[in-house]
Here is the input.
Amino acid sequence: MWRWLTHNHQTLTGVGAMLVGVAALFVAWDQGRVMRAQQHGAVVPVLQIDGFIQSTPEARNIGLRIVNHGVGPAMIERVVLVRDGVEVSDFTGLIELLPAGFDRSWSSINGRALAPGGEVEPVTFSWSRGDLDDNGLNDLLDEWSHWGVVACYCSVFDRCWQSTSDNEDRLPVRQCEAGDRFDVFERFGSADRPDPQDTPQDDTN
Here is the structure.
């Protein structure tokens, strides 16, 4: 054995160099894996979706609020409105049951980048206190409890999740499904836009 070793030291040197190279390659791969995990972990968004109600002596407001409690921006790709777990295209069913005399505000969500700590209120319904008494409010909250929102969003590294307004699920997904060009809240707000046929025309030639 000793004689073989003394006559094949170049072979042994090559084998040793190969083992060192393999070990260095593994260390580099492992360090890269850890670094990628750290990078991803440093920019993970976490969306929380909550309904809210505000009462003042003058008014009552009910609406939806989305907050990013994560450490990275949330790239919101798709928002779906549901009633009793079934997707619906607009708020028509809810509006038909709302007490009269409400004002509304809205904000589009699809395609929005929500910074860490940022929040947005996609929809708010408002009544003067006299137009919505306690009984009307209770009826409204009963109906409101049937409605919900499902939001799909991604990190800047294209890792994606799905959150719901009941905040029971935050599920990782491969990617967000393509949504409509206008989200449900933008469609809701479009009702506030004047009809082009109602816009006065300039007859000056």
